[in-house]
Write a structure and sequence with these properties.
seven-stranded mixed β-sheet, alpha/beta, Rossmann fold, Arc Repressor Mutant, subunit A, 19% strand, 2 domains
Length: 320
Amino acid sequence: MGSKALFAALDLNLFDLMSDEPQSTQSLSELTTIATNRLATLLAVLESLGLVVRGGELYRNAPATQKYLVRSSETFFGDYYRLQIDKLIYPQMIGLTDGLRGHPLESMRDMLADPAQAALFTDAQHQGSIGPAVLLSRKVDLTGRRNLLDVAGGSGVFSIVLCYRYESLRSTIIDFPKVIDVARRFIASAGLDDRIAVVGGDALETAWPSNQDVVLMSYLLSAVGSSDIPRLLRLAFDALAPGGMLIVHDFMLEEDQAGPREAAQFFLSYIAQRTDSVSFTGSNIAEAARKVGFGGGRSDVLIPGLTGIVVAGKERARNA
């Protein structure tokens, strides 16, 4: 109920309407054409959630709301919730019990085959991934690396951010064809058509370019089946040049698997889509990478309480 109150407020642009000055229930009703009795109920929920603050008869945004949920803010994150979470993931969670019983709903692959769904998902994910992409660009040093393979790269946001940071870097993105259609738009807008190439296809079925310096898989392993994870890691190993680097960014559980809460819940959402989904820790992925030939395999937190990264290397030839 709290989630739906947030989504409704975003759909009605309530936080934008309160961004410059506090508003009364009556003024918000006039601006939104929503009746005051219904709007008052929604505002009561938003206040109870800490999203808005009331002083007398006037409501204003809480500080975090002003920072992240107002469209004019540089750190606006609202469309990730309003589009992807509300319109796509939330409805799928209705089928969670069926998924747990082995009867999943529409798969991610089927959903992203539809142009409208692919655009909705990818546009929202672009906004949701800008922050993680910037954090990753600061966490992992790609100095001297020239070729990046961004597997299931979505809108291209990670490739865009990394290419901005490293001027010598070029990237190739593999993703479903309808997702690639959206990625082209973002790449062109970033002015990186000459440095970011795209390949439309399922990463498990499409040929990967070889001799890569870096293979990045962000939010991919959580979305595939348990048997697909070692396959993808093997494909990454084969695509890398000696001395190449694997980067896995994804939701990751703590080592005791008791959380974090948000990561565990995102893993749960995939059960509504497929019967062979699996949750994992950073050490699980590092060990799986070692089994296909990678060396090292260090894990670290990227977004506290939500995602982590695993970085592993392909050994250089002994005579190199």
